[in-house]
Amino acid sequence: MDHKKIEEGVRLMLEGIGEDTDREGLRETPARVARMYEEIYAGMEQDAKTHLDKQFHVENNNMVMEKDIQFYSTCEHHLLPFYGKAHVAYIPDGTVAGLSKLARTVEVYARRPQLQEQMTAQIADALEKYLHPKGVMVVIEAEHMCMTMRGVQKPGTKTVTTMVRGAFAEDYSLQQTFLQMVK
Length: 183
Ligand SMILES: Nc1nc2c(ncn2[C@@H]2O[C@H](COP(=O)(O)OP(=O)(O)OP(=O)(O)O)[C@@H](O)[C@H]2O)c(=O)[nH]1
Ligand SMILES: [Zn+2]
What we know:
Blueprint: H1 3-16, H2 24-27, H3 29-40, H4 49-52, E1 55-57, E2 64-75, E3 81-91, E4 95-97, H5 100-110, E5 113-114, H6 116-131, E6 135-144, H7 145-148, E7 159-166, H8 167-170, H9 172-182
Parallel strand pairs: 2-5
Antiparallel strand pairs: 1-4, 2-3, 3-6, 6-7
The structure holds guanosine-5'-triphosphate (GTP) and zinc ion.
The site of zinc ion has 6 residues, from loops.
InterPro entries: GTP-CH-I_C/QueF (IPR043133), GTP-CH-I_N (IPR043134), GTP_CycHdrlase_I (IPR001474), GTP_CycHdrlase_I_CS (IPR018234), GTP_CycHdrlase_I_dom (IPR020602)
Domain GTP cyclohydrolase I: 6-182
Protein name: GTP cyclohydrolase 1
């Protein structure tokens, strides 16, 4: 990440809103923001492959679900946070990933400027590509700060996005089982 560019940008933005970037409280802000971006945009430099490549063989090919994965992301339209829970499930075809790797995959795609729909699809794509499962389903529920603190100003509104692949797309009852388990 280019800290110098981020710092310049933050300084310009503060000047743009009429701030004095030399006042004590703001003097270190550009550098702080750059350090923070290393964290909140860490997914830019990550690949889900590194988490999903290591797999274990199993006899049990029933659904595996990791639910209530808390995440924080940033909407690419306003650069304001959106945050909530991701629920991720797949039906293995002989191999499974470590449980933590589903949450790590969510992090890879959350920590970027994002659209909720796109993040939902990217998580499903990664699981499909690297685990070769019989099916994948991802549901994300989130609150968007760009809809609460500004704009339409509707606090409490939840946006729910879904992506189904393979067996989940073909078998409606599997989707129902997923939703029952999420509840
Ligand atoms: N589809 C989708 N839209 C999003 C997401 N995050 C924010 N948005 C929306 O992006 C849209 C941007 O609309 P614009 O009309 O270009 O921008 P705007 O004038 O700031 O929109 P308002 O928020 O309605 O004031 C808004 O409707 C936001 O609610 C997301 O993850 N997915
Ligand atoms: Zn937004």
